[in-house]
Amino acid sequence: MEKIRVAIAGVGNCASSLVQGIHYYQAKASADGMGLMHWDVGGYKPSDVTVVAAFDIDGRKVGKDLSEAIFAPPNCTKRFVGRIPASGVKVAMGRVLDGFPQHMRDYDEDRTFVPADATEPAREDVVKALNESGVEILLTYLPVGSEEAVRFYAECALEAGVALINNIPVFIASDPVWAKRFADREIPLIGDDVKSQLGATIVHRALADLFRKRGVKLERTYQLNTGGNTDFLNMLDRYRLSSKKKSKTEAVQSVAGIPLENGNIHIGPSDYVPWQKDNKVCFLRMEGRIFGDIPIDLELRLSVEDSPNSAGVVIDAIRCAKLALDRREGGVLYGPSAYFMKRPPRQYPDDEAYLMTEAFIRGSGRLH
Asked: How many CB atoms lie within 10 A of CB 293?
């Protein structure tokens, strides 16, 4: 198969894991392709993905080869491959806008961003870079709360005619105006806010769905998360956290049957613990009633490296977007968005979203 040419906006921990994973699976055969939801997506393997352009705002990454930039501070995710050869892709200066929270200036350089002393590109500069690199799909990996910056890159994707996968909780695919713009241009769109492969939200959804299917009345629940990467440091600003909380809460409420009142559900990142680095720890509690109105409660602790957990989903989303490009299908990809994202335009139970995605991959699924 031909290579799938992607660009990355935000060369952070998630981008590092994705690039590492592309190289990791180059040496794997189908029989030992562990850690993947799909080895083959419409004929495309993980190693068919190649990054041909990248944008960032950190001076330790801008101007560096991508193979070097993915390991530069403040990135702290685990390195699970050996030497990655030079890619020939130099990380370009991106637009800052609201992508650099002011409160992060107060932390040590190895924990936060160090803005590059470089001229920010105009939109036409980014569009030109995408077109000259032959990019087919643009991935947004910007900090939570980067509303202006994500919209900037969405505009660039539209103007360049490249598919967009929006991995953060800025509402593009789930905004009817943006969705229509991509549909009108016949450009594929997947979003918003990537689910982890086996993370806090997907586990919480599965348990809420289990409660409902087994006739257990869910009365109260919380999901508390801690981590030590720049994502958690960024979200110490509660204003920037608002879209993330909305996305995660809606993801659970949508499968709970009867939605809980706001005072009985609390979901969202909770605190920054520097020594955890890219390890995320989730504390989950659910309280309910079974037969005879007898109380039941469930507690769970989940510990996982955050960024590889994301990359395991994005590598499938990329290949689904490529299939849409091959088939000349534009607009929101509803099955993949529901299966891969926390806040898709339409919420479906995960088993149904899975079947929709499988049908899409086979070419037999409905677009809308």
From this structure: 7
Amino acid identity of 239? Y
Is the backbone peptide bond immediately before 176 cis, with ω within 30 degrees of 0? no
CA separation for the pair 263, 276 (Å, rounded): 29
Over residues 199-241, the pLDDT tens digits come to 999 999 999 999 999 999 999 999 999 999 999 999 999 888 8
The CB density around residue 21, as the number of other CB atoms within 10 Å, is: 23
Please give the structure tokens belonging to residue 269: 């990142």
Give the C-alpha separation, 358 to 350, whole Å. 12
Tens digits of per-residue pLDDT, 71-127? 999 999 999 998 899 999 999 999 999 999 889 999 999 999 999 999 999 999 999
Burial class (CB in 10 A: 0-12, 13-18, 19+), 105: exposed
Residue in this structure with the two tokens 């409160």, named with its chain if needed: 103
User: Torsions phi, psi of 49, nearest 5?
Assistant: -85, 135
Can you say how many angstroms the Cα of residue 198 is from the centroid of all Cα atoms in its chain?
13
Q: Do residues 223 and 267 touch, judged by C-beta distance below 8 A?
A: yes
57 touches 10 (CB < 8 A) = no
